[in-house]
Amino acid sequence: MSKSFLTHLECPKCGKTYDPSQVQTVCTCGSPLLARYDLKKLGASVTKKDLAGRRTDMWRYREFLPVASEENIVSLGEGMTPILKTEGLGAALGLDNLYIKDEGLNPTGTFKARGASAGVSMAKQLGVKEVSMPTAGNAGGAWSSYGAKAGLETYIVMPEDAPDLAKKECYLAGAHTYLVKGLISDAGKIVGRAAKRYGFFDASTLKEPYRIEGKKTMGLEIAEQFGWEVPDVVLYPTGGGVGLIGIWKALEELEAIGWIGSKRPRMVSVQAEGCSPIVKAFNEGKKESVFFDGAQTLAGGVRVPKALGDFLVLDGVYKSGGTAVAVTDAEIVECLGITARTEGMYICPEGAAAVAATRKLYRDGWIKKNEKVVILNTGTGLKYPDIVAPRLPVLEVGGDIIVPEMAAGQ
Ligand SMILES: *Cc1c(COP(=O)(O)O)cnc(C)c1O
Ligand SMILES: [Zn+2]
Q: Tell me, what CATH number does 311's domain have?
């Protein structure tokens, strides 16, 4: 019995629709496709109260997701991550109501698990056997892991300078893992050719329509976890922008079924100065970005020089009265340390970029002291073992700790 209310896939650019019972990628016009549901039926079939007793992962929202039958759900327990009130960090930055949604607690250590769970489940439902994708690292780790669970063959291509940990994660999960002497965009071209030659499904960001649906659950959770009152500001570290597009889509669907009102958080797209195509487009009032040359930042997850869904990200930012902000790598490392010292949270550099952006926007007066602000920490810092390289004191065996300010008088 089908429990999904998915009706069709729709092009947000030209309006063309596609049959979701077939494998689909992008529109003939080149735009990503969005999943559309029968929201009337959806709204009539589930209540907020129904959610209370359900599983505590993202599949608690299964009416809002595209998978038709339970046995196709490929899950490792992703989602329903905590939203922590970060009072120490808030005090350090000057804010009274600062929260971090900690996506680092997901399987594979990042929110890529949500997209992979939805995408791999749909691949399974549609009978796909081989999946190929380019990655900066984290998406590859997630798709390899969920692919392994589903029994898919995965072919992953990543830059040679991708984090070691990501390479090992893919390899260990049995993915056919390749490195390229180039950028993620070069990896994408290799995947495109392999997809053509061998008939692999090309699961590149936003060429695959269901990853957004997985990431959308962050928006559903933010609404539910705050008692269906959305916060004032949401900051999201933006690479391909899938998370921001997804959160925005979730809130539109929730309003359509009457679970929230018309209030929206102001959406902030955060990027690194070394790769900030969306910020540049926003500052110029443009609807789309242009390829950002020489992309470089230590926050690898947001090193995306041109996103296929850039126009959807910018649309959400404009419509919400939001903004787009770039921060430096130095600010990222500084804010990673501040967050660890004030909250005990080892966040990822992408999340730290959002912390740095929060500080900047508060200083500029764009965020007010008492506003309810949510930072998406998209991954765990444990996936980035080389971000800090402290020189620690080494003691001889039998040596003692000397604390200078406490040693006086002894
Ligand atoms: C992929 C990634 C991002 C960016 O996500 P998009 O949906 O591509 O914008 C941010 N942070 C981390 C840790 C990531 O892995
Ligand atoms: Zn189209």
A: 3.40.50.1100
